[in-house]
From TrEMBL:
SMART domains: TGc. Gene3D superfamilies: 3.10.620.30. It holds the Pfam family Alpha-E. InterPro entries: Bac_transglu_N, DUF403, Papain-like_cys_pep_sf, Transglutaminase-like. It comes from Aciditerrimonas ferrireducens. It comes from the Bacteria. Residues 524-592 form the Transglutaminase-like domain. This is Alpha-E domain-containing protein.
């Protein structure tokens, strides 16, 4: 693929407003024309699939473009002033209006004429390949008046137009790349596609809402074909039988490039390449309009408990857009480089901690062989970076295999084949930690529960693994009732979970030695005492009892004044994390100050302790064994 990039000295110069505007609208009208073709093709396909009398009528194409009133004003005089028939206008009236009528600004031919006009305005910056592709597209458009009246010729003509519009977009992407002209053209295409998604959902809403309609699956498939999303929908494992699947997929699915969330994300990527934020004002206003349409559509088509989650997901991306460009226009005389957007994060230096973890097994008799799994390497997280790690095993193992476990944790499996009375495993790790903060907002907890059941986004699918109860953190009505005090209807998830962590800290006594690693969480709840591991299991079980995603986290804690530390269990300090859509995982420590920050070293996470035990294994022989653990967590001075 070849790219034509502007010279470096021109990249810092803003485009003329007239040229930037032409490129932006070239992208929009190009995507509008392509979308119109796909919609009409999809509707024709639906006519073949639906029996006579079950189709929606041709007014759906008028609703799609918002031209019902214009159509009525345009065509009633042609009918001698008579009212349109009760069944609505037919194919012979609607399609010429939607495809050819230049008095209709949303007509396909009007969009193609606008593509040519804007290409001419921006001709000085468009490569010859783009101009040639636009010319070919316009030539094909001229066959419309002959082709549209005949259905067979119409479908062939639409197929030719689809190939030609896709060719213009492909050539533009290949030749313009991420230079300013390519950015403005790409912004137009992304926003128009997102807008089309909202309009298609709204136009087909009556059919999508018919839960008892035996042909509902055909209507949903028509929506997917109109948005070129059917193949991606099926690959993702979504089901047409689910009435919420199509709206959620085309609004939120990041794996589908045409979803509203993906297109707004594309806008964010493109805007970051612009040197002048003032040039993005129009695009941001359009993005805000698209966002409002998407949220309105979600609230109309989705249950009241699901629509807020869609709003949160979409506004999260749009919030990044507006935050990125909340800078004033450059004052006169300043350089373009100085006016580029900069991150507003207050610089905070990382805290560096060193962890020394030594475990020694002593056997009453010589053990002939042993196999051990070790979760002792801290994992990387957004707030934690591993600087150094060393694992030492004595006696030296015959085999050592580093792996990733099913949850992405670092795991080392090693075997000692020679007779031995002791087995010593020492891990030395150095990490850098950043402080963390809870999210400023989160959806109501009931909305998150429904989102976990319906959303197919990769992060939600991963979080769904932590919803069912496990052996050490089972769901139960008793724990659901205890958690309910912190989770009244409509309360934001992060506030409710923080309240739950504080209540566990107040209601349960920290009493080292009162439990073992095998003590059931029900006994801990009844006795109201335990250690950090027990409180983490309790919090996870409470959240799962409400249908939320929660995971058990093992790690280390830098002791501070007033912090309860169990010397016997210091190697396996534990807390929990809850999944917050749009913000990721929120870690909370019900044993200490609730918010996990730069004094907690994350080792591994799983469903409960059994998934992430620091050491576990089997030994042949050895008789009675005794385990000694030594842990030191210290702050490393610069």
């Amino acid at each position: 693929m070849t790219t034509t990039a502007l010279p470096a000295h021109r990249l810092e110069q803003p485009l003329l407003a007239r040229i930037a505007d032409a490129l932006y609208w070239l992208g929009r009208y190009l995507a509008r024309a392509e979308g119109t073709v796909r919609v009409v093709q999809a509707y024709h396909d639906a006519l073949f699939d639906l029996p006579v009398g079950a189709e929606l009528g041709w007014t759906v194409l008028l609703r799609l473009s918002g031209t019902e009133e214009l159509f009525r004003d345009r065509y009633q005089p042609l009918l001698g002033g008579e009212q349109l028939p009760d069944a609505g206008p037919g194919e012979d009236q609607v399609l010429p209006f939607c495809l050819l009528d230049l008095s209709n600004p949303s007509a396909l031919r009007s969009s193609l004429r606008a593509v040519r006009a804007n290409a001419r305005t921006a001709a000085a910056l468009l490569p010859m390949e783009v101009a040639a592709a636009v010319h070919d597209l316009w030539q094909i458009a001229q066959d419309g008046p002959v082709a549209v009246p005949d259905r067979a010729r119409r479908l062939a003509w639409l197929g030719d137009l689809l190939v030609a519009t896709a060719a213009v977009g492909r050539v533009a992407e290949e030749t313009l790349g991420r230079d300013q002209p390519g950015v403005f053209l790409g912004l137009g295409r992304a926003l128009e596609r997102a807008d089309l998604t909202c309009r298609v959902l709204e136009a087909w809403a009556p059919a999508l809402e018919r839960t008892a309609d035996p042909f509902a699956a055909i209507h949903r498939a028509t929506v997917l074909r109109a948005l070129h999303a059917e193949a991606a929908f099926r690959r993702g494992g979504w089901r047409l039988q689910d009435p919420l699947a199509v709206p959620l997929f085309v609004l939120l699915e990041e794996a589908f490039p045409g979803s509203v969330r993906s297109e707004l994300g594309t806008c964010l990527t493109l805007l970051e390449a612009l040197p002048f934020p003032c040039r993005a004002t129009a695009a941001l206003l359009q993005a805000g309009t698209v966002l409002d349409d998407a949220v309105s559509t979600a609230e109309a088509l989705l249950p009241s408990v699901v629509a807020p989650a869609v709003r949160t997901a979409l506004t999260g991306v749009h919030g990044q857009l507006t935050q990125l460009w909340e800078l004033p226009a450059s004052p006169s005389g300043t350089s373009a480089t100085a006016s580029r957007p900069r991150a507003r994060r207050v610089p905070v230096g990382p805290r560096r901690l060193r962890v020394l973890h030594r475990s020694r097994y002593r056997y009453e008799e010589p053990a002939s062989a042993s196999t051990t799994e070790a979760h002792l390497r801290p994992r990387a997280t957004p707030r934690q970076r591993l600087v150094a790690h060393q694992l030492t095993i004595d006696p030296p193992p015959a085999t050592t295999t580093p792996l990733l476990d099913p949850f992405g944790n670092h795991l080392v499996v090693f075997s000692v084949d020679e007779p031995h009375r002791t087995l010593e495993v020492s891990a030395s790790s150095t990490v850098e930690l950043l402080p963390s903060a809870p999210p400023a907002s989160s959806p109501p907890w009931e909305t998150v529960r429904h989102l976990l059941q319906l959303d197919r986004h990769a992060a939600v699918l991963e979080a769904r693994r932590f919803v069912p109860g496990s052996r050490k953190a089972p769901a139960s009505p008793t724990l659901a009732a205890y958690a309910a005090e912190s989770f009244p209807p409509g309360r934001p998830l992060h506030e409710a979970t923080l309240d739950l962590a504080c209540r566990i800290r107040e209601d349960f006594a920290y009493l080292p030695g009162s439990t073992t690693v095998s003590t059931p969480v029900e006994e801990v709840f009844d006795a109201r005492r335990g250690v950090c591991q027990d409180f983490a299991h309790l919090a996870v079980a409470c959240l799962r009892s409400l249908g939320l995603a929660a995971r058990y986290v093992s790690g280390y804690l830098l002791p501070t004044a007033g912090t309860p530390v169990d010397p016997r269990a210091q190697a396996s300090h534990a807390w929990f994390a809850v999944f917050v859509p749009g913000a990721g995982w929120l870690d909370l420590d019900p044993t200490n100050e609730p918010l996990v920050s730069d004094h907690h070293v994350t080792l591994a996470w799983g469903r409960d302790y059994d998934d992430v035990a620091p050491l576990r294994g089997t030994v042949r022989g050895g008789g009675t064994q005794r385990l000694e653990v030594e842990v030191l967590v210290e702050l490393v001075d610069d």
